[in-house]
């Protein structure tokens, strides 16, 4: 079990509510984890079933004639896409705590509450579980990765033994607490680095393709997985003997991973981090591009990185927009242009075309042939756009439980099919 680090602010609560306190109190939302026994959980958490309705659509992944759609924290739906005009759901892989997958040589690598789970899909009609590597990605710190992480003013984690318990949800209650205690959360003069493990126990034909929001990335014989702060590295040369290598600490806000050749571009809420994987087992830091706090997927093509920043809610205070960054000199990335956006999510590139999912503003299509100056050429409105995957002749897009497929036609695209999941 590896160690995982996080910033903890040391707050002396008893001092804040002493007799000298000015007596100012407010009602605050306090979240506490709901636990389940790990042994019983893992026995119930994996199954392959007939297709079921989606609960909360997440990320998408394309592999051969199949599309995999994540059902946030539930598993993923398998769709036969041999006929893109009429895609057909064929199975649901129940995998609790799942948000990401990546596929190579008919093996699915997926997360499940910090574990790395591997499935064999060589027979798509008989999907089997190959192995489960416990705590390979992170130490079951579900509270940091669950997209349904509750909005609250305080989070009381308690004394959790992650060897025995798994966080499966949250209970949120209103409690009256000193205003000073709330304000102290943002005063990190006394912040210390603590060992949370002790406190909280260009793709080959055999590799699939994920979207820009992916945390999983297979490059050659290596699987790279980003958690909240680290790049986790796995040697998957032998699927029956996957090697868990030393992870590389990046920052405290990691969200996505993308590569251009042997360069990794890691998106985080504070910036974009650039690493070389010339030695694939030991990513080496090159530089970073810092921006305001926001959710931050990134894609790269040639000399330019395209970064969508989404502000508001849990994403931060930065103004939503599309940032075009010159990365011709990897050591000194330079912001060139910012294009305002409503609520951007994922994005993708196909030749000189840039696709941006702008949330409730729909799917936006840009001509980037004159980058960093780009021009809007089409907008698909009245849909909620979440993430895209540009394929050789079509575009996949997911949004609010619906899978959209578009066909490229003379530098434009047209809707080919929709599938309510």
Automatic annotation (TrEMBL):
It comes from Maribacter dokdonensis. It comes from the Bacteria. It holds the Pfam family LVIVD. PROSITE patterns: PROKAR_LIPOPROTEIN. This is Uncharacterized conserved protein.
């Amino acid at each position: 079990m590896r160690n995982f680090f996080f910033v903890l602010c040391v707050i002396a609560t008893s001092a804040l509510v002493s007799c000298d306190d000015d007596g100012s109190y407010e009602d605050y939302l306090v979240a506490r984890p709901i636990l389940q026994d790990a042994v019983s959980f893992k026995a119930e958490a994996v199954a392959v079933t007939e297709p079921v309705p989606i609960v909360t659509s997440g990320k998408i992944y394309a592999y051969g004639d199949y599309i995999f759609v994540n059902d946030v924290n539930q598993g993923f739906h398998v769709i036969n896409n041999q006929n893109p005009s009429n895609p057909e759901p064929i199975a649901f892989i129940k995998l609790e705590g799942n948000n990401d997958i990546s596929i190579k040589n008919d093996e699915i690598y997926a997360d499940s509450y910090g574990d790395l789970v591997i499935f064999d899909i060589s027979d798509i009609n008989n999907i089997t579980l190959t192995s489960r590597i416990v705590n390979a990605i992170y130490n079951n710190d579900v509270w940091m990765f669950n997209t349904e992480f509750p909005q609250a003013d305080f989070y009381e984690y308690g004394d959790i033994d992650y060897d025995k318990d798994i966080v499966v949800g949250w209970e949120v209650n209103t409690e009256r607490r000193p205003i000073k205690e709330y304000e102290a959360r943002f005063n990190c003069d006394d912040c210390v680095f603590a060992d949370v493990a002790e406190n909280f126990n260009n793709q080959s034909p055999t590799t699939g393709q994920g979207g820009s929001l992916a945390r999983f990335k297979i490059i050659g014989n290596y699987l790279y997985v980003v958690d909240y702060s680290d790049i986790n590295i796995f040697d998957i040369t032998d699927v029956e003997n996957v090697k868990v290598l030393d992870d590389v600490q990046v920052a405290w806000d990691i969200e996505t991973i993308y590569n251009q050749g042997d360069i990794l571009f890691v998106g985080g809420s504070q910036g974009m981090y650039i690493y070389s994987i010339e030695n694939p087992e030991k990513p080496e830091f090159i530089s970073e591009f810092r921006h305001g706090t926001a959710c931050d997927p990134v894609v790269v093509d040639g000399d330019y990185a395209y970064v969508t920043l989404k502000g508001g809610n849990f994403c931060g205070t930065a103004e939503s927009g599309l940032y075009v960054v010159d990365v011709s000199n990897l050591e000194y990335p330079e912001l060139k242009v910012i294009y305002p956006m409503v609520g951007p999510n994922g994005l993708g590139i196909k030749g000189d075309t840039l696709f941006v999912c702008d949330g409730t503003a729909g799917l936006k299509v840009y001509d980037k042939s004159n980058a960093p100056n780009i021009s809007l050429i089409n907008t698909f409105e009245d849909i909620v756009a979440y993430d895209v995957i540009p394929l050789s002749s079509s575009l996949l897009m997911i949004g609010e439980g619906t899978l959209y497929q578009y066909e490229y036609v003379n530098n434009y695209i047209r809707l080919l099919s929709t599938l309510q999941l």
